[in-house]
Model the fold of this input.
Amino acid sequence: MTTTDLAVPDESAPVRRHALSRRHREWGLAYLLLLPALLVFGVFTFYPFLKNFKLALYQNPPYPGLPSHYVGLSQVGSVLSSTSFHQSLVSTFFYVLMVVPVGLLGGLLLAIAAHKAIRGMSMFRTAFSSTVVSSVAVAAVVFGTLMDPVVGLLPWLGIDPHPAILQNPTWALPAVSLIAVWQFLGLSFIIMTAGLQSLPDEILEAARLDGAGGWTMFWRVTVPLLSPTLFFGLVVGTIYAFQSFGQIDILIGPQNSGFTHTNVLLYYVYQALSIQHDPGVAAVLSIVLFIILLVFTLAQMRYLERRVTYAAN
Amino acid sequence: MPPTESATLDRPTGAGQPGSATPAPTPHRRRRRARLFLRYVLLSVGAVVILFPLYMAVVNSLLAPSQIAHQPPPFFPFNPQWGSYRKAWTEGDLGIYLRNSAIQTSVIVAGQLATSILAAYAFAFLDFPFKRTLFIVFLATLMIPFEVTIATNLATVSSLGWFNTFAGLTIPFLATGFGTFLLRQAFLQIPRDLREAAQLDGYGNMRFLWFVALPLVRPALAALGVFSFLGAWNQYLWPLLVTGNDNSVRTVQIGLKQLLNTQLDQINVSLAGTVIAVIPLLIILVVFQKQLVRSLTSGAVK
Done:
């Protein structure tokens, strides 16, 4: 990869000096090319990330306009021990648990059903991946209408809880998780399809010839072979679920999210920041969110890293 | 792995199965036909479940408000009322929101492509001190989700006077560690001989990048472009935070929330807005499905 290797193998002094200045020019060019991205990362990724750790130590003034004052770790402690934080963690946990397994299994089933070259398949595949392009606002408005107690489908189906489903402490969280499941199905299908296509056809064929039936085949051959893909989907899905925000903001809103138990972690950050105007609390919550996501991101990065080694050799 | 063939949805699978050419015994063939039928049933059920919400949005957007609340709900608009679309466009300011989203998205896509191309070129083709360290810095950005930086970014954007501006909407997203990584991988596939030959021909780095390297990594560029487009167009949290109450920069996603809030009695209008907002993306999906799949699954398979 080194361009200096290209310099004439001749060891005479003038050529070497030429090669040296050329190397310096290459350094300069490299830094210049990296500069725009590094600037953006510095200002909008690393600085605000590190700033969280400072903000967490400062308490917001009781009245706007006054300076915030240093309180050390006491703010961190009070946030982490508050009931609303615990409630938020529990809600997030249940939310992720409702979204990810269903989304993964649904995507896997669709991918298996679509894993055959038969007529019309590309249409089915486009349909199955379609939810990947629908935004959270689109999904929220569409599902919000379907779940509406007056114009929605629920009364027709004989389901008509009081209070209405999106103001209902029991049903609001499952209802918004259903939206996330639907949205995640497209991505899940795409990931599972890619995984299935990467499996060696010979192994599947050999297992089939050995007399493995559909069910045995699925659990004994397909799932184990697909386990790296399933793991990747699990990680991606979990990160996705932790970043859910829009459907709760649009369908439930700050006034209802507390008693409907839908103030998942990111929504809690938003509330602290945008409604209570308390960057200190928002920073503490951001750090918690970061630590949780870091575990999953590191797992995801192992795949990227594998590709780095692969490409570097 | 050749970059063009990583994972496409259209790759035929199971073609050329043994025995498919010779006529099979009748019971076997019948069983196979039953299986195929079952598969189509399964596929259709899946398609109906997935498409039903959007289908109902289209149906309801075409109903008169009095019909929407009808029980049982109408599942087909026998007497379509197109007025809701005109209303969403004019009274709902949807035209302005769509324009704003188009500006915001194109700036982000162009910016991400540009910064990723430059940085990826440096990492793939140039040698310089701290190269490894800097590459790790780029990868580290993947570990910091944007959501955990909003507290300070909001303050930064306000202090720069970028609140309610396209600058505030776009500049924080003009670089991407993922994109840099994706393009670096693509650049590394280019044979070294090619670069050496270009250098002997007197090509400098920028000419080599523009005339040789970029044309060769077009699939990766397309994948990144579609991925950036999707991410930018569908952004919700950040546009909500930085656009306040100003319609002149608000994106279509925030516009949908507005449409839902202000005209609760006119569900057909907000659904018409939703249908309009999702159409550009459905077009993208149909046209660029291959590229989209490629970017979404990078890392999923070896």
Q: What stands out?
A: Residues 1-21 of chain B have pLDDT under 50 and may be disordered. Chain B touches chain A through 116 residues (CB under 8 Å). The domain at 94-296 of chain B is CATH 1.10.3720.10 (MetI-like fold). The first helix of chain B runs from residue 26 to 61.
